[in-house]
Amino acid sequence: MGKKRQSRPRLDPGAHIAIIGSGLAGLSTALSLEQGGFTNVHIYEREGSHDARKEGYGLTLTYNPTGVLHQLNVLEEIAQSDCPSRSHYMFNANGEIQGYFGNAFARNRGWGQRGNLRVPRQRVRQILASRLKITETHWDHKLVGVSGCENGENICLAFQLEGAAEEKLLVGADLVVAADGIRSAVLQHAYPQAPPIQSLGIRLILGISSSFTHVHLKERGFYTLDSGKRLFVMPFARTAEWAVIDDNATSCSQPTGEQYMWQLSFASSDDKTYSSTELLQQALFHCRDWHEPVQELMLSTSQESIWGTLLYDRNPEILHKHLQINDTLPRRILIVGDACHAMSPFKGQGANQALQDGRVLVKHLTSARVEIAVSNTQREIVQRTASVVAASRQASVYWHEPQLVMPKDGQDTQKFAGVCSQDIPALLHALQKKNIKANSANDLDKSVQCTIDELQLIGPPEVRRKAESELKEAHFVDLARQAILSSEMNDLAFLRKLSWEYPNLIRNVDVDDMTCLQKAAKSGHIRIAHWLITEAGCLVDARLLNDLSIKSYMKALLKMYM
C-alpha cells in the first residue's frame, strides 16, 4: 500500500487576515470571517475615520429573507433604515408620462413584498461596523507596498501612517483581502500590470436634497429621460421617524427633513475635476427646460453633498486571467468588491454583489488550504459577477441613447405596471391627449387610474407565490393568528417574511373580528401600521377611526390614507 498523502492544513482561525478597505466589501467580509470563527481579522483604511467620507449615495439592496443580509444578521436593522420607494414614473423632459413601475394599477396591489431596500451607504457601513466584535480597524493606514515575506508564504504589507512621512509600518499577513475600491492600491502594488479600468464615457452628478417635499416624491421617485440624459430621483433618508405626539394632537404628518437623492448622468469624456458649485451649475444647465420639480429639487441641494465623476467599470474575467498567470507573489491575495468587479450603477447591483464576496471566502476557507481557497473563491466571484458587470455596462449604453425618449412599440422603456403591454401605447396617447403629466396633476395615480377606467383596460393576471386556498384551514388559522400577534408585538420582521410567502394573507386576515392593522393601531405601533397600509395594502376603514381605544396621533396617520 502506498503512503497516505499528507494534506496541507487549512488556514488557522488565529491567522492574521488583513482586509484593505472599510467599504461594504471589506466590512461584510470581516463580519463573515468573524462568523466563520476567525479571530485575528484586521481592517486597514487610509481614511481617518468612518465619517471622513462624504455621505455618498443611496444603495439599492435586495430584501431577501434568506439572502446575504440575513446571513450577516443585519437584514432587519437595515430594513428599519429603509426609505421606502413604492413606485416611480418615467417622464420625458416635458413631463409627459413614458412609463410606470409600481403596484398602484395592479389588480392585486399591495402584497407587502419588499423587493428592494433604499438605504444610505454610510448607514449600511455603520450597521456592518457595529456588528464587528473583535475585528480591529486601523485608520490612517495608506497602503504603499505589497511584497512576499521571507518565508515564501505570507504577504508583507507596507503602510504610510498619517503624520509619519518618513516611516513605514510593515505588516505580515497570512491572507490579504483587497477591498479598496475601483482604484485599488493592492492591485497597483501587487499586480502593476493588471488590466486597467474601462471608461463608460458617461459623467454622473449626484446630490442630496435638503428638506425638500413634493407630491410626486411621497415615498416614490421618478426618472426623466431626454436625448441621452437620464435623471433618477429616489428617497434617500428620513432625518426623523414618525413623530409620536401627545394624545391631544389633531394631525400627523410625514417626518420632517426628508431627503431625496438625485442622480444625473449624460455622455461625456471630460475627465476634468469640478467643484461642487460647478457640478450643480452643470446639472442645472442640462435640465434647464425640464418639468417640475427638477430645478427646485436641485436648488434645494446642499453644496457639501454634491459630487461627480466619470463612470468606469472593471471586467472581472480579464482581471482573473491576469491573476492566474502572475505568480510573482504567494497566492494569498483575494480581490473583492469594486476592486474586482466595479460596475455602472444602472442595474443597481454593485452593493448586492460586493456584500456576497465575503461569504464565498469563508465557505472555501473552511474546506480547503488557503491557496486553494483563494483560487476557488476568486473564480466563483468572477463567475457570479461577470454577467452582472456586462449587463450594467449594456444598461449604461442603453439608458443614454438619444432616441430613448421616443420609445417605439415593444421597446423596453414602454413598461406600465398593471397594464397589458399591447394597451400601453393607447394609454400613453390618452394621457398625452388629456395633458396628464408631471406638471399638471397633484395626484397622478388617481388621474391615470381614471384614464385606465375610461379606456376599460384590464391589467395582466398577477402571479401569486402561494395561493391561500392551497393552505389547509388549520394552518391558515395558525398563520393568521401569528400575523395578528406580530402586529401587536411590533414584529415587522415576521410580517415581512410572512408576506413574502403568502402575499394576500396579511391584508385579508380577520381573526376574532380583528385585523392586523386594527391590532397595530390599538397597540400604537406607527411603523407597523404605516407598513401595513403602504406595503401590505391594508385598507383603512371607518371602524378604526371610530375606535375610542386608538389614540389621536394614530388616527391622524390613518386619516392620511383614507
Radius of gyration: 26 Å
Average pLDDT, rounded to a whole number, is 85
Total beta strand runs: 17
Instruction: State the CATH superfamily name of the largest domain.
Output: FAD/NAD(P)-binding domain
Share of residues in strands? 15-25%
Structure description:
The chain is of the alpha/beta class and 562 residues long. The chain has three domains: 17-86 and 117-197 and 313-394, FAD/NAD(P)-binding domain (3-Layer(bba) Sandwich); 199-312, D-Amino Acid Oxidase, Chain A, domain 2 (2-Layer Sandwich), CATH 3.30.9; 468-559, no CATH class. Helix content is 35%, strand content 18%. The chain has helices spanning 24-35, 68-71, 75-80, 121-130, 185-190, 276-286, 294-299, 316-325, 338-341, 350-365, 370-398, 424-433, 444-455, 473-488, 492-501, 505-508, 516-523, 526-534, 542-545, 552-559; strands at residues 17-20, 41-44, 58-62, 88-92, 97-101, 116-120, 136-138, 141-148, 155-161, 168-173, 175-178, 198-208, 221-226, 229-237, 259-267, 307-313, 333-335. The strands form four sheets. The chain has a seven-stranded mixed sheet, sandwiched between helices. The chain has a five-stranded parallel sheet with strand order 7-2-1-11-17. A three-stranded antiparallel sheet has the order 8-9-10. A hairpin with a 6-residue loop joins strand 8 and strand 9 (155-161). Helix 1 (24-35) runs parallel beside helix 10 (350-365). The longest helix is centred in the last third of the chain and has 29 residues, at 370-398. The chain is globular and about 75 Å long. The termini are far apart. 40% of the residues are buried.
